[in-house]
Specification:
Helix content is about 50%, strand content about 10%. A hairpin with a 2-residue loop joins strand 2 and strand 3. The two termini are about 40 Å apart. It has 17 helices and 10 strands. The longest helix has 23 residues.
Length: about 425
């Protein structure tokens, strides 16, 4: 069976044209009236994308009919296909359902819940001020590469307890996985996987006060591949989407007079600004792939067996059927929904909020140095960079805080 959506041709999500103006395409999708539209993830790689908010919730809350395991679909895809860097199976919570999903997810969730938000705040503040200090006297910076990425990566490494020598390998591998084209993307994913394997083996030998150690100590006793998968999930979900959220929110504060003005004068909280960004233009615009094991008739649309169904996160959040003021509203699907919903939303909010607040507090007069350019790609809403200018500023001396890490101990959760 084939998918047919009247009035909508297959949308190529990976093109530069789509990246430059995706909201025009979302409007056309909504005008079709169908909750599902045919898309192309890469040349020759077809999928279906949910563009109605209600359709997204139905799919994400129904793992029986829409499981997350891609292996049957993956068997039909050439092993060298670059899209597998993002969608290819590995043993982790992202690709399983039911009791197995609960077993591998619980150690991650329990470890994250042990993070003290007050200590995390101090860690983010220290990283932010240190990075701002490194460029504040220059009067110019690229907020993506000089601020957002190193901040998120530094904080996550501290929380995970990752040694410096492996952190660099993980960073480069994850960067290529998200950003590179063709075979480089696959090589990046493999490079990161190798580093995670070394990290997991080293951490088993030397436990510490960190999230990784807490996962190891959890009574579910994850095996080596599952532990590597858990680490990959933490870094995959914890770096690039959060980097994009911080960078994109800072970009909007500079380009949108209402958005930036209300944040700077205090009439809009940074937390509300982040939610508006997550609603209107989330950092992962399409993701949460599901793979029906039989042909399914869904709202008068036939879905082919095994072919990926993606949640069009941005399209669903901007569904014209959603009414009302979005300020302070967190009923978006930027964090997913259902059993696979992100377990680290509170940490992500805290890091992003502190990162934006610290920068705007120290450098409130930042301005874009050039027109922002959006990176092509099927999944993320990411800038090529965010070059800014500002009046040079010499920061006062400060005393860095002592090392701050969550407490690792054996969990009693099942």
């Amino acid at each position: 069976m084939t998918l047919f959506t009247p009035g909508v041709s297959r949308v190529k999500l990976y093109t530069a044209e789509f990246a430059a103006d995706p909201h025009h395409s979302y409007q056309e999708m909504h005008n079709s009236g169908s909750p599902l539209v045919p898309v192309e993830l890469a040349p020759g790689i077809n999928a279906t994308m949910a563009v109605h908010y209600s359709a997204a919730l139905k799919i994400l809350h129904d793992p029986e009919h829409f499981p997350a395991d891609p292996r049957r679909w993956q068997q039909k895809i050439p092993s060298a296909e670059p899209i597998l860097a993002m969608l290819g199976y590995y043993p982790s919570t992202r690709f399983c359902d039911g009791p197995e999903h609960k077993r591998v997810r619980q150690p991650i969730k329990a470890a994250i819940e042990r993070v003290d938000p007050n200590r995390l705040h101090a860690e983010v503040e220290d990283a932010a001020l240190s990075l701002i200090e490194s460029f504040s006297e220059n009067g110019t910076a690229d907020l993506l590469y000089d601020y957002s990425f190193p901040l998120v990566f530094r904080v996550l490494n501290r929380l995970m307890g990752c040694p410096a020598d492996l952190a660099g390998e993980i960073a480069e591998g994850m960067r290529l996985r998200f950003d590179a084209q063709g075979g480089e993307s696959v090589r990046g994913a493999n490079r990161a996987k190798t580093a995670f394997e070394q990290f997991a083996a080293a951490k088993r030998r030397h436990l510490g006060n960190d999230i990784a150690s807490a996962m190891i100590l959890h009574p579910h006793n994850l095996n080596a591949p599952e532990l590597v998968g858990a680490f990959m999930s933490c870094y995959g979900a914890g770096i690039q989407p959060l980097v994009n959220l911080i960078t994109n929110t800072l970009c909007r504060t500079m380009l949108d007079d209402r958005f930036g003005g209300e944040v700077l004068d205090g009439s809009m909280l940074v937390r509300d600004a982040l939610d508006e960004e997550l609603f209107y233009d989330p950092s992962m615009r399409a993701f949460c792939a599901r793979y029906p094991t039989t042909p399914i008739l869904f709202d008068d649309v036939w879905l082919p067996v095994d072919e990926p169904i993606l949640i069009g996160i941005t399209a669903c959040n901007n569904d014209p059927r959603i009414q009302g003021d979005r300020t302070g509203n967190r009923a978006h699907v930027a964090w997913g929904a259902g059993p696979h919903m992100c377990p680290a939303t509170s940490i992500a909010y805290l890091i992003a909020q502190d990162a934006v607040e610290q920068l705007l507090d120290v450098l409130p007069d930042i301005q874009p140095a050039s027109e922002p350019m959006w990176r092509a790609g099927s999944f993320q809403r990411a800038l090529e960079g965010l070059r800014v200018t500002f009046p040079p500023y010499t920061m006062p001396p400060r005393i860095p805080p002592p090392p701050i890490l969550p407490v690792a101990q054996s969990s009693t959760e099942a």
